[in-house]
Fold these 2 entries.
Entry 1:
Amino acid sequence: MTGAAIEMREVGHRYATDPVLIDISLSIEPGEVFGFLGHNGAGKTTAISILTTLIKPTSGVARVCGFDVVTQRRDVTRRIGYLPADVRLYDHLTAAENLEFFARLSGVDTPRHAVAETLEYLDCTELSGLRLGTFSTGMRQRIGIAQAILHRPEVLFLDEPTSGLDPAGVRQLRETVLQLNRELGMTIFMNTHLLSEVARVCSTIGVLNHGRLIYKDTIAATTSRFPDEASLEDIYTLVASES
Amino acid sequence: MIGVIARQQLLSLRRQQTFLAFLAVFLLMTALTGVIGWSSHRTIVQVYAAAVTVLAADGQPAPPDPFTSVPALSLLSNMTIYIPLIGALLALVLGHLAVADEQSTGIGRLVFSRPLSRTSYILGKLLGVGLALGAVMAAATIASLAALVVANGRVPSVPDVGRLVLFSVLSLGYLLLFALVGMLTTLLSRRRSVGLLAGVSVWLVVTFVLPQFTSGLRPTASLNPISDPVSSSLAFFQITARARPLSVSEIYKDVSAQILALGPGRPASTTLAAVVPVVAIVLALAALVAAAAHRHDYSRAGAA
Amino acid sequence: MRSKVLLTLLAVLITVTVASVLIGALDYRSALADYEAYRRAAIAGGVQRIAPSPLQLLSLLRGAMEYVEIIGALIAIVLGYLSVTRERSSGTLPLLRTRPVSPRQLAAGNALGALGLIATLMGASMLIAVVSLGVIGHDWVDAAQLTKLALAYGASIAYLMTFYFLGVLTTTRSRNPANGLAGALVIWLVVVLILPQIGDTLDADNQVPGGLFAALGLGHAQEVSILTHFGAYERVRTSLEAASLSKHFERFAFAMTDVKDKYRGFTLGQLLTVTASSIAWMAVYLAALGTAALRVLRTHEVTTSGGI
């Protein structure tokens, strides 16, 4: 196997008799920001669920940081962070209490210190003592990102991170993602519908259509390949319609 | 990791209004048990004295005193009702709350994308629930002891304290059974409210329906520590009585009465044998809970 | 009605009602056969004064009434909870509010729907009870008994509607619907189980199996005479019971179904007179909770999201 941050070899998954992912093969290098595009129900969340070890593939092999997601689950989970869509935490606990719990689960040696440091890094120290039940979507998102990076993971998975955010929130998220990639060298795997953000943030994109990977390339190569298309949205529409 | 989960469980419980409400009702009733017992006993003694007077005035002889000797712990007889009634519901809610958030709100996605095995998770939850119920029973035991001292005006003897401790251990086992039921029904349901209501349904059947089917006890009779003797002559009961070892609430009441010396004595071996099916049920439930947690798909959030 | 839990609870209620009546009816048939044999023997022996049957057919429904009191109340709470959460979670409430239907009409419609369901359930229960008594107990209810039974089931409808409104109230007023349901469960526990249990425990007559006064060989008149010396104690005890809606329903239902010996031989008018306070309490609880629930439903925030 290669030194790829994320690798999928003919990965498939089905719920009962319903195939959701079909023969997905892709490789993402360390330090890349990968945008995973596709229609609703294409299988993007299922792919992330496999890579974050929440479910097992029904066929094929998936590896993160060189470790198999099924047989070396512990090694994988030590190195990843995950922000799911519509992130929820324990509403009756404060932000700090939530984060300390997740820091301990991640095996961080000094949870309180890690929490304080992370909140400061994300510029949301003021949220520390407040209960999650009172938070807006944007505030939850920021604490959600905090729990994902407490243990300084090598790979960060983001599932529809801009969902429910206002324009200011989207901008803040973009800057955070770029910061994490630039300063901490995190590999980012991001499911998203917001193509304008993909163009600004991602270095590579993949397109999923009804469970199959129909396109994967760098942003630069993509715009070169489709010079007649005005935007990434036009390219995506073209690629999806041709499959 | 087990300790991390258990610790977070206990911290969460302190903030959960639902749990605190049930806990308040349970501890209040526990504290009142001794008072209620003392009050009713005192009244019965006075009623007997008045009855003797009335009958003597009518030229009738005094009837035998139905309370020739009252066990010291009889004042706590209502605890054998409040444990299956309130304590079991409290434990059920506790079990439900222990796993509901991860199961229904999607927090499970965050928890299980970390180096935490399902086994450690469920052991941590069981530890947290066990510690919480242990603390509840310890508080209830202390409240009962205090009630005995205040109501009787004397300190219970060492053997009586020993009986009370043994009763508390039995009660803890009974509460654990229902905590496991709450966990299991919640893990098997995608909707949070369905999990809770399914658990309450099981509690209803165990507490009220099974005793009627196996022993003919009407629902409200199950709420009285002193029940009318049941006619078992009907062929119906001769069949259904075979299911009595599964009627855990009846077994609990019966064994409690033995431990607290509230009724005619029986060999300890008989009492111990009666507990065996309950222990087996607890172990089976624990295994089912573990299996359900292993099989559960935490990648998808449930619903309210 | 599509809720699996609601259907499960309904199935449990119907099953235990049928079983309770079945058990009682089997026992009644046996006792009735014994009485008939005595009567035939007495007639054949030329006995002039034959003792009337001590059997009270409707009293066999005691268990069924208790199940309505306990499980029925829980079902009604669940119904109230579901009627609020289904519209919340499906997001249909804002859609309904933009239609030419007033909030008052919407609220009334919800309540009427629940009333229809509860009335159907109680009607079916009554029918099952009558048929079970006739077919298994070999004794059919007469017109007078049918009237009393209808009144008992009518009271059960009012009783269950009160708990339906409780479920609506606690669910609507709670930010998290599941917490609202749990809150209603706490109230149900206290009102339906704990308060009556304390009242029963403090009742001197319940301290000995078979009754304390019976064990002492005392009749009703002597019992009353003795209890006059315990006025304060009885007042405290009955006050606790009076705080429980369930106890009022139980008193009325037991009076209508000949469960209590002290009411045997009473006419319907007399029964209604002695249970007047229970009737009044049930009406007060129903009116208070119904008014509060309908007001809350009318003013319910349409933008509230669907719980967790």
Entry 2:
Amino acid sequence: MGALLELGWFLTLLAVGYGAGRILERRHYASIRRRERELADVLAFTMRFPPKTTRAQHAFLVSGTVVVSSDYFKTFVAGLRRLVGGRFRGYESLLERARREALLRLKQQARERGSALVVCVRFESTAITRGRVPSIEVVAYGTALVPQPR
Amino acid sequence: MITSNLELIPGKRIVEHLGIVQGSTVRAKHAGKDLFASLKNLVGGELKSYTELMQEARTEAVERMQAEARSIGANGVLNVRFATTSITAGAAEILAYGSAVRLVDA
């Protein structure tokens, strides 16, 4: 009886994780796509040097941070996946979302401070695991430039 | 104080290098928020309280780095890098470091 209850509880958690996780992911993607269109005029590049033609009036550091966590279902499937190895789509989409979100926040910060050009953008991610469910911090940072008026 | 992860600033000239400056902070969230985050682990997605924590910590690290730069007479920190290390569950160290320089208008 006890084992049956435990199995029921486990399956419930799995179902909640799957259902809610999917809905949240879909919503997040919709929101990312909308804001990416809104912020399309803020340009971000990874190159180490600013464009030669730009004489900057201001230059300042901007960053965007996001901490995301896997859900119960994905973590469970990841456990199974570890047995056979190979590509794990659940975590790929999680990290992709986090990275796009971090970049959006960086662009938002740049726009709020009057810049439309961010150069030398770098990404960094760190696993901050708590218990069995992994959480990942993704940060995007770069230098926002405000060109001098001609 | 100009803070940037570029190696040079357009329109500015570096007249003096003053060495590496750094700032770091170790942060943890209180138990209540931590509990909420573990509930959030069920459905996945963003852990807002942790995002906030990291953002605050990064700002703090940058401020400490700038304070150090100011104390040695710099007016800019170039080539800034960030590093994060999780120390134990729920606590993380955030480090910002860069090169302190004196800049003048080119």
